[in-house]
Each structure stands twice: as C-alpha cells, then as structure tokens.
Amino acid sequence: MALGLTPALRWDPRCRSRDAGRQGRSRWRSAGSPDLQQVPKACPACACDPPEVSCALPTAWAASSSSSCPGDEPDAVATPFAASGACTAEAAIPADQQCNGEPCVQSLTIAAPSITTGACTPRIDAPPPVHERAPPWATRATACLAGAHTACADATTCAPAEPLGFLTCVYHEGDAACPDGYAQRHVFYKDVLDGRDCTPCSCGEPTGTSCTVMASVYRDAACTDPIASNLVSSSVPFCAVTPPGVGLGSKSAAVVAVEPGACAPQGGDPIGELQPADPSTFCCIA
C-alpha cells in the first residue's frame, strides 16, 4: 500500500457478516454512498387572512322624468346623500314639480356603492412537524481501520488479510484517485448538506368582495314619511320607477353588509435538495 493512504477493511452491507471484521481492529467508520435518497422538506400549510374592506355610500341619487330605467336623461336631477348617510333634505324635489312638461320624478337611479379592498395577509396555518427523520442513504458501508500497521522493507504499509465479508482497501479523506493495484474505487460521505427550504407564504388577489347599502327616500324633510327603501349592491347600480310626480323630501343611506371575500393561499412548497458532504475514498483490491 502506498504511503499517505490508510489501510482499511471495507464491509459492504450486501455481504453476510460484519462481526468478522471486529476481531483485532481498533476503529470503525460508517458512511453513506452517493445515492442519497431525497426526502422533501416538511413545509407548513399556508393560509390567508381576509383583506381589509371599506364601503363608500353612493354619491347621489338621480331623479329623472323618464318613466323607464335607467333614468339617465339629460334632465335628471341629482339629489346627493350626506357623506355619513344620515338624513338630509338637500336638493329636495317638491311633489308634482315639472321638467319640460313632464313630472320631474318618474324614476330614481342610485349608483352602486364603491368598495375598496386591501391585500390579504398570509400566515402559517399549520406548522411543520417538529422532528424529521434523518436523511436516508440508499447504501451504507462500514470500514474497520487497523490500529497497528506493519512497516514493510519497501517503505509501504502492510495490513492483515480481510475477514469474511470484507474487502481490503486503502482509505483517503476527500474525493481522491486510487493507486495502482486498487481497481475498485468507492466514494462514501460522512455528512449531508441540507439545501432544502420552503417557498414563502403569499396570497393571491382578493375575490368575492362586496358591500350592500340600504337606501331610503321620504316625502317629508325629516326622514319620517317613507316612500321606499331598497338594497343597493356594489355589483350593480339600482333603478326604480316611481309614481309620477312623487315628492322627494329627504333621503338616507347606510351600509348594511360587507363581504370581505378571500384570497387563495400560495407557497409552502418544498424546494431544494440534500447534498452528500465530507467524502472519503475507498480503493479496494478487486
């Protein structure tokens, strides 16, 4: 055996017995083969908290002399809401008021309330398992390193013959070339570099957000003599035909429902892989 290489008896798990190599040997070395079995990292489940949603009241009603919807004729009269939706008599229209020879109020159009949606907040719904099993090697080998070597006259080192189930090898740290006479080259690894990770949790765009407003109109100026109350959704404007010439003395509006919707969670997917590390080279006699 050449100088600089350590004599070793390598046991292959396919052989019958490892115990035979224990007699008269001082150290054992166990390592894994390059065919490291990849185990995906256990990643957490991602979830998304609902977005923050705000609903703004329609800016105005429009009263039209048209008896059909939508009442978007040029003579439509805007009747704005109060910013808070509280009762207001601003821009009231008296009963039987005429517009171009027609009752000014024959239909009402209410714009859809506007909705502002923020982003969803990602969170970890379920943490990964606390303990993960050790990365599995597809093949393992154990080497018996002799405690005492016999110096030979030609400046080489002699080692005893291998027991049953072992091969006679020389051993070198790192990924090294084999010397002449040792045709079987085996590289095994002592450690594993864990390059696995999980993609971060994130959220898609919000979907399904909506809000609903209750809009009411009254004959008097104090919101006590109702004509009608209607739900108006953020998805579509509202229009209704009224009795011709009805008076619009006051109006009010209030948000009655907000649906924040939801976001589809993304991320929490395993990426990367395990890499064998700290190689050792065993060069064995065929």
Question: What structural keywords apply?
Answer:
286 residues, mainly beta, 6-stranded antiparallel sheet, disordered N terminus
Topology of helices and strands:
Blueprint lengths: L5 E6 L15 E6 L12 E5 L3 E4 L3 E5 L12 E4 L17 E2 L2 E2 L3 E4 L3 E4 L3 E6 L13 E6 L4 E2 L5 E2 L7 E8 L10 E11 L2 E2 L3 E2 L6 E9 L7 E8 L4 E4 L8 E10 L5 E2 L3 E2 L2 E11 L2
Antiparallel strand pairs: 1-12, 1-15, 2-12, 3-11, 4-10, 5-6, 5-9, 7-8, 9-21, 13-14, 15-25, 16-25, 17-24, 18-23, 19-20, 19-22
Mean pLDDT: 79
Main β sheet profile: 6 strands, antiparallel
Termini, distance in Å?
A: 14 Å
Shape: rod-shaped
The sequence of SSEs as H and E is EEEEEEEEEEEEEEEEEEEEEEEEE
Account of the protein in words:
This protein is mainly beta. It has a domain at 6-39 and 133-194 and 272-284. It contains no helices and 25 strands. A six-stranded antiparallel beta sheet has the order 2-12-1-15-25-16, with no helix packed on it. Strands 6-5-9-21 form a four-stranded antiparallel beta sheet, with no helix packed on it. Strand 19 and strand 20 form a beta hairpin. The model is unreliable at 1-5 and 10-28 (pLDDT under 50).
